[in-house]
Structure formats: C-alpha cells, structure tokens
Prior knowledge:
The protein has 309 residues and is α/β, with parallel strands linked by helices. It has one domain (8-13, 43-97, 118-297): UDP-N-acetylmuramoyl-L-alanine:D-glutamate ligase (3-Layer(aba) Sandwich). The chain is 35% helix and 26% strand. The chain has helices at 44-54, 69-80, 123-133, 147-160, 176-181, 189-196, 203-213, 254-267, 272-287, 303-306, and strands spanning 8-11, 15-22, 36-42, 59-66, 84-91, 97-104, 109-114, 138-142, 163-167, 182-188, 220-223, 229-233, 236-240. The protein has a 9-stranded mixed beta sheet, sandwiched between helices. β8 (138-142), α4 (147-160) and β9 (163-167) form a beta-alpha-beta unit. The radius of gyration is 18 Å and the shape is globular. InterPro entries: Carboh/pur_kinase_PfkB_CS, PfkB_dom, Ribo/fructo_kinase, Ribokinase, Ribokinase-like. Its cofactor is Mg(2+).
Amino acid sequence: MTAGGAPITVIGSANLDYIVRVPTAPGPGETVLAGAMRKSPGGKGANQAVAAARLGGTVRFVGCVGDDDDGALLLRELRAEGVDSAEVEVITGEHTGLAIVAVEDSGENSIVVVPGANFALTATRVTRVVRRRAGGGLVVLQGEVQPRIIAAAATAARESGSRFVLNLAPFVELDSDVLATCDPLVVNESEAAAITGRPVGSVGSAHEAARQLLERARSVVITLGARGAVWADADGAGVVPAPAVDRVVDTTGAGDAFVGALAVRLAQGAGLRSAVELGVRAGTYAVARDGAQSSYAMSGELVDVAAGA
C-alpha cells in the first residue's frame, strides 16, 4: 500500500464539457440567451479520478476517448492531475464524449451527454484490467457506461478481492448480483427513489431508503445536496450534515467530488462514516466554485470547509 492508500481504479466516462451560463434552463419550446460558454474537462469517471488524485489517492483511469483534439486535451489534463492514464484507449474514427451543461444563476445545472467513444469500452478490457491491476484496491464506477461494463467490473472486483464502489448516476437497471457487490452503492435522492420505488425527499425518507437498499448492497450512501448525506452499513447508520456555504456557484460535478473523496478515505482504510464526512466536505467545497474538475479541492483546502467556512 502506498502513502495514498490502496490503489484506486476508476472505470468510466471522459467527456469535454461545453458549459453555458443561463438565467434559467429553457423549458419545452423555449429559447434562452446564454451569458457565456466555456469548455472544461469532465465526464463522471474522469471527474472522480481527478477528485481522488487531488486528495492524494493513487489513481488509474480506465476509459476511452476519440482520436480528436478533445480526446488529446482530456488525456493531457488527466496526466497533469497525476492520474495514471495508461489504460485510456484512443478510438480511431470516433469522437470523444461530450456534455452540454446549462448552469443557471442559482448554480443548478441541466446536462445532456453524448457518449461517443465512452461506449467503445469493452467488458473484456475492463475485466482484464481489474484482474491484473486492481487486486486489493478499490474499483470505482458510475452509470455513464453501459450496464454490461458495470456488471463485468463487479464480477472482476469480486474475483480479485477488490472493493467495488458504484455511483449509480445516472440510474440504470442492474442485476441483483451487481448491487450485492457494491460497498458502497452511492446514489442521490432521485436515484434512490428509482431503485426503491418510493419517493426520497427528506433525511428521514433517505434513512428509510438506505435501510431498504442495505438489503441489496453491502453498504449504502445517499447524497442529499445541501443537507449532506445518509450512510448505512453492517456496523450502523447515520447522517453527515453539509457545512453552509455563502453562495452556490455551480453544482456541476459536485457529486463526483464527493465520490472521489469517499474513495480516497476508503482506500486509506477508514470506515464508511469517515469516508462520507470527507465526501461531504469535498462536495461542499466544489459547489462554491465554477466547473467540475476545476472546482475540486487539494487535501489542505478542505480544512476550512470542515470548520464550516
């Protein structure tokens, strides 16, 4: 084990985000004028890899990009952040994944993702990488890859003795054996509702949903935005409140900041509550800044967040 803990293998999407600032997101048939547009590295997989690396994790990223300028930019950024990108495949003739992100003045966002090269990732390659390189560490996935990729990674993680962390965002249907491997399953309120079939809109209902999901997964985390996060495992359950922020600037990628931080703390051998505490602080830090990866904290920058600054 290195100083940063057990190795973290993040498997998932890498997108270039096209971010536009709007007063409010357009409704059906409506046109709105954006105040600005900028491009920024994104994708849930790459975001979580960068978030973990910035907090000292030993991180490798497994995914695909196209043979275009966007793909080259994403690879440069991953390497600059200290993420091992040797397992990122460049797909000839395919465009790099992209996301159109509309950020409202309130900080809330609406996102449309075009997967592109992300869907060229194969179960065979994921299985090979996990078996060869992830033994004893963490394997982290999200819902922005095809369900068969998630299933293959879960199987390979079990067989290699790796801890499987799944952020099921966006929600996709998965077999029960995949959910049973999750340690933890990380979802937000809407994703928890999609799995349980019951609305989740409060801390109390999140606790109830976590108890239900604990019957299907090894451990569970439900993120609640400004209210923090609820967790549950075999040793107990609880809620970690989020520190207050003066102003929410941009919620894009805040959930990925949470998952990356959680993975780092778990890789260091901490319990789930401690991991959720760091995740909440990382997510809180991110929402007060623009962008996804550009908003993520370095280790020392979370001290003030912990104090409620």
